Amino acid sequence: MSTPHSAPWVRICAVDDIPPLGARRVARPHGMDVALFRTADDRIFALLDRCPHKGGPLSEGMVFDHRVACPLHNWTIGLVDGQAAAPDEGCTPVFDVRVIDGEVWLRADQLAHHALDLDRPRAGPCSRAAAPAATLRANHGSPTCPPSQPVVTP
Ligand code: FES
């Protein structure tokens, strides 16, 4: 589905489908889910559902102001730019958002192609026999943030 004026946008849900100060996950065909956040002033933001620290699910975090606190270790991530608040460092990829007549839209090209290189870290014990070193992934570091910024219409 697309808007009549702009083909690359996809309708996701109504603003009211996202609880105030809450989040909703958007599954993609490939890559990690996108987390939609609704702030107290009814703005909508979209981030990859992955904390820049160790990959925690930001959609399960606490939304306050224009930020979300990761549920795992309480890093604070800005909803506008995906940046971790100092002294922590790192960022989460941001997705463009439009809100038109109470409906939330995301860009089809970003849903299909943005931040596909990041995945959810795997928790739990492992052994070298069960998981060769070559398959283990480093969960630290700062993924490259996109230059795009969310476009939000209250
Ligand atoms: S994984 Fe989010 S703060 Fe550690």
Secondary-structure map:
Elements lengths: L8 E6 L7 E5 L7 E5 L5 E5 L13 E3 L2 E3 L6 E3 L15 E2 L1 E4 L2 E5 H6 L41
The structure holds FE2/S2 (inorganic) cluster (FES).
Key structural traits:
Rieske Iron-sulfur Protein, 154 residues, four-stranded antiparallel β-sheet, globular, 1 helix, binds FE2/S2 (inorganic) cluster
Unreliable sequence segments: 128-144, 147-154
Estimate what percentage of residues fall within beta strands.
Answer: 25-35%
CATH architecture label name of the domain at 9-112:
3-layer Sandwich
Q: Give the end-to-end Cα distance, rounded to a whole number of Å.
A: 22 Å
Roughly how many Å is the radius of gyration?
A: 16 Å
Helical fraction? under 10%
CATH class of the domain at 9-112: Mainly Beta
Q: Provide the list of bound ligands, each named once.
A: FE2/S2 (inorganic) cluster
Overall geometry: globular
Tally of extended strands? 10
* Structural class label: mainly beta
What is the fold-level CATH name, i.e. the topology of the domain at 9-112?
Rieske Iron-sulfur Protein
Describe the structure.
The chain is globular, with a radius of gyration of 16 Å. The strands form 3 sheets. It has a 4-stranded antiparallel β-sheet with strand order 2-3-4-8, with no helix packed on it. It is mainly beta and 154 residues long. The protein contains 1 helix and 10 strands. Helices cover 4% and strands 27% of the residues. Residues 128-144 and 147-154 have low confidence and may be disordered. It has a domain at 9-112: Rieske Iron-sulfur Protein (3-layer Sandwich), CATH 2.102.10.10. It starts with 8 loop residues before the first strand and ends in a 41-residue tail after the last helix. Bound molecules: FE2/S2 (inorganic) cluster. FE2/S2 (inorganic) cluster is lined by residues 51, 53-56, 70, 72-75.
